[in-house]
Amino acid sequence: MARFAGGKAPFLRISDQGKNTNTIMRDFMIALLPVILFSWYKNGIQVYMDGNINFFEMLYPLLLILLGGFLSVLMEAIFFYITDKEHRSFSDVKKKLGTSYAAIPGLILGLLLPVYTPIWVLMVAAFMATIVGKMLFGGFGHNVFNPALLGYAVVGFTLSGFINDAGGVLNGSEVFIDSYAGATPLGVLAQFRNSGNPFTYQALVEPYGNLWNFFIGTIPGALGETSALAILLGGIYLAVRKIIKWYTPVVYIGTVFVLSWFIGMIAGDAGLWFPTYSILSGGVFFAAVFMITEPVTTPTNSLGKIIFALFLGVLTVLFRFVGNLPEGVGTSLILMNIFAIPIDTYSAIIRTKGFKKTTIPYASVLAGILLILLVYTLIASKNLYTALLPILSTWGVM
């Protein structure tokens, strides 16, 4: 029998394994450690060992990540102090911070940003994430959007020019690699998509070495998104600790993989390397482990989690191959955050009542929307009719 926390909202489930909110947040911080350490090694220590930056510049990637966590805590403390005039003592503010868990969104925010993000841009992102994305909604447990993602999205859309001018995503060693040409793998993919050229391994993967480099994380990208290995270690830890459901990231990554495989075959007869390239590029793995498993802005029941992950996977591919958004993950997740509560509500009805007359309309609407998105993604990614014409002719259909 599951136990529930009573009292004032938010109400967070406490499982039979004794996983209270403090335990969950502590385990999330532990799971982030491999990602933080690899990010610092790749963008700081290794570059310093190559002789391309000095000692203090070596510390900057780690400082950026930790500063994200510190700024989030600081801004929440200031918010509590300003808004609660009756409880302004240090102990009162400290007590509130103890149940607000401000550091984790801040750390995730730092990991979402490029290595040479200016400190003042990080401050803007932290303000948008903490104050606008979290506290103005009512604080922990009440926010509609993932705070870190909202802060990242705001500075990504409005201040990206300042980030690029400061150095962008390429670290001190990557700027000397001619094949990178200042672009991330998804940036190169967008260039090929817009030019109409077929997707080839030589064009998309070889400039960065091979797919093993993608898995390890020695490719350009945001601080925390490049190493699928480090993220996977954190994800396995969370799954073993029963903090997250393993099937949520698997469904999301699997959806992106399968759809990318179909699009790769349609757009250029690409093999399995292409969907592998697709899931290892950008923020797919990071979002799968640390963002779509977040307990506040995503569904809470099993069916809802699966539906959420499916839709998110379709939208990610849709934005990548149809929209003018090479990454696709952040925009998709912010959009899906809006529908998390309806999905949670209707999937709970379907799960408890089964597929009866009262639940068929809910299931039909969800299935219809998913089918429309699937078909549109495949058609819009390339002229599907043109691609299938030779096959239809062979079958005698055309």
From TrEMBL:
UniProt organism field: Hujiaoplasma nucleasis
Transmembrane segments: 23-41, 61-83, 95-113, 119-137, 144-163, 214-239, 246-266, 272-291, 303-322, 328-348, 360-379
UniProt xrefs under InterPro entries: NqrB/RnfD (IPR004338)
Protein name in UniProt: RnfABCDGE type electron transport complex subunit D
GO CC aspect terms: plasma membrane
Keywords of the record: Flavoprotein, FMN, Membrane, Phosphoprotein, Translocase, Transmembrane, Transmembrane helix, Transport
Source taxon at top rank: Bacteria
GO biological process: transmembrane transport
PANTHER family listed in its UniProt record: ELECTRON TRANSPORT COMPLEX PROTEIN RNFD (PTHR30578), ION-TRANSLOCATING OXIDOREDUCTASE COMPLEX SUBUNIT D (PTHR30578:SF0)
Pfam families: NQR2_RnfD_RnfE
